[in-house]
Structure formats: structure tokens, C-alpha cells
Amino acid sequence: MASRASVVMYYDLVSPYSFMGFKLFNKIRHQWSGVDVSFKPMLLGGVMNAVKNEPLFKFPSKKNHMVADLDRISVVTGVPFNFPAEFPVLTVLPMRVLTALQIHEADKYEQCIDKLFDEYFVHGHNISKAEVIQAALTPIFSQDPSPLAKVQSYLQFASDPQIKQVFKENTEEAVAKGAYGAPTFLVKKVGSSEEMLFFGSDRLEMIAAMLGMPYPGLINIKNMAAGSQPKL
User: Fold this and answer.
1) What is the model's pTM?
2) Which range marks the domain in which residue 57 is found?
3) CATH code, domain carrying 165
4) What is the DSSP annotation of the chain?
5) What class of enzyme is it (predicted)?
6) How confident is the model at residue 225 (pLDDT cuts 50, 70, 90)?
7) Could you give the residue numbers annotated as active site?
8) pLDDT tens digits for 11-62?
């Protein structure tokens, strides 16, 4: 039985709905006292292949709707969003970097996720390139004696067999738990061993209801800074 409620979000930087889910969840999660939150990097392509799912961008009508839908979410919630000209891109490198950061730099890990999401879905930079990752993350380590060297070390970690294995296991774990896309949330109530799966960035209200936590609604989310007090 779980002594505390928990929410695990499986994500991939290539997923625009993971971007929205991460941004919106972080606007409200700090008001959910007693809920443990974690973000697990996975390879979305690996998940899709494993379950024989097809990405939306392969179908023009679905892709057109996806872009329009994300633009509407951006307007309603106030989350800046620009669909990148280069889409999709390979995210194995940045996702392995984030896997290493989660293990070795936990206090900066979520800030790095946020920055790389912005690089791609706000600024349109190709995050598959090492130089883009380096430029994006170096300022986060400005207090380090050598910020550039620090980020370069994590880029090198992406080739480390242990990091590769952890990333592979995260992806396999997501599939085993029922994931078929991103973002996938696994939610557990206090006192329960059951994990409830929720798919998509639009499931936060349902997750809040299941956990008995506040949800401010999209109108109020637009007026909230990340981690601020919701106006209920």
C-alpha cells in the first residue's frame, strides 16, 4: 500500500502534448501537498513500435488538427507554443542527457526538461543537435566552476552503457505498464497499490479528482505562474 499519493509522467521531448502536459502540470502540482511527482524519460518511438501505434504526423488530417489543437491550448492556457518547422526530430541524445541528469543532477533535472522543451516548442531549435543542447543547458549550471564543461560531460554520458540501459528500461517499463503514447501518467492513491493510467495533457482535471487535489480550471491556469496558488 502506498503511504503517499504519487504521479509519474512518462515523456519524450519530441511530443508536443508532453510539452503541454509538463507545462500545465507544473503550474498546479506544487499545490498538491502529499503527492510525490516524478518525470521519467522514455523513447516515444520505442513505445509506438512496441505497441504498433502510428504517430499523428503520419496522417495529414490528424497532424493539421494536432497543430490547431495545440495552438488553441496555448491561447486558452497562456503557455507559449510554436510548432517547430523541423518535426519530428530524433530525441535519443537529449533524452539520454536528461536520463543522466535525473540520476546525477536531480536538483536541476526538471529545469533542464523545461529548457529543452522551450528550445523546441517555443524557439523551434533542433534539440537533436549537441550544440543546441549545450547552448540551452549551460546557463542552468552558471554556478558551477565550469558550466560548459559540466554540460559537455552530460553529453558524453549519453553514450554511457549504464545511461543507455536505464533509458531503455524506462521505455520498456512504460510499455509494460500500458503506455501507448505520450504523455502517459501513472497515478497512485494513498493507501492503494493500484496504478491508474491516464493518457494525454488533458487528463489533469481527472487526475486531480481521483487524488482529491485542487484543480483551478483552464481559465485560472492562464493567470497562474508555475507553482503559484490557484484561484479556486
Assistant:
1) 0.94
2) 5-222
3) 3.40.30.10
4) --SSEEEEEEE-TT-HHHHHHHHHHHHHGGG-TTEEEEEEE--HHHHHHHHT---GGGSHHHHHHHHHHHHHHHHHH-------SS-S---HHHHHHHHHHHHH-HHHHHHHHHHHHHHHHTS---TTSHHHHHHHHGGGGTTSSSHHHHHHHHHHHTT-HHHHHHHHHHHHHHHHTT--SSSEEEEE-TT--PPEEEESTT-HHHHHHHHT-----HHHHHTPPTTPPP--
5) transferase
6) low
7) 15
8) 999 999 999 999 999 999 989 999 999 999 999 999 999 999 987 777 888 8
